[in-house]
Description:
Number of helices: 13
Amino acid sequence: MTAPFIHTEKNAPYIYLTRLAALMPCVVFAVFAYGIRAIILLSLSVAGFMLTDIVAAKLIRRHAKGEYFDVSSIVSGLTFGLLLSPETPVTAVIAGILFGSVIVKQLFGGAGSNILFPATAAVLFTNTVFPSSFSGFSKPLGDWFAFVSIVSGKVTNPDYSGLSYPEIISGFAGSLLGVSCCLMILIGLVFMLVKGTIRIYAPAGYMLTLFAGFPLTHISTIISSQGLHQYVLFILSSGVMFIAVYCLGDYTTVPSRPLPAVTAGIVCGVFTLILYGRVSDVTMLVSPVVAVNFMSFVLDYFSKSISRRGRRSREVDLL
């Protein structure tokens, strides 16, 4: 099944395998920073998405074409897991997996046919149904063997206002499991660029909107040292870079043509700035992606229409 917005000679298994490899730096950081909790939550997310995808596909009598293993389940599971709070209880994770795999992915035709990005839709659902799961975050490198919180759901609220800029860049301003270390995200981005499995238009439009828009929406505080610290913290450690690279770089749910892709990125960035400080951090991150996913097919359709009209106009001029 061909994804609705894919325009590339590379096949689906190659794209998913390179995206899986690109996620590995963030996985390594998550395990390093949060220890056994990260291992349990990421393993559960991957195993859950794989199992539910297989069972749902058999029940719907849909089988993958070809002789390759469907890696999209692993990619969806890892992305979902990295967007979870280290304190997320297991019950919330299971609920999110069922929603993301069965409702968002399989009911819309399986890998390559879904209109929503399964990981962000699943996180938004989990945050809506289990809001306490994202109401606090553990400090990275706190207790490597702590895992009681993923059973009890008890949350904490560390203070990151005193972190230095090198600490922020290194990912010590922990929030969700694998989104706070910009260095690991950049490694994944460079890898996908080299492999040619990411279109940079939407991520670039998104990040440029945030770079330019955040100072304008916080003009009263950005000139102070505390405001600059908040700006750097938002760009590098809040998770917006992870969203740009691993969610808005998705071939299936975001247009790959330059004009609609850049538009989708800008719209997502504007939504993010509007929500910043008004809703929880995870809602600020994932709900604009879900909204843009709904808009993507419209943007792609109108871009094709504009392109066709442009070609007809040139043909008339030549006549």
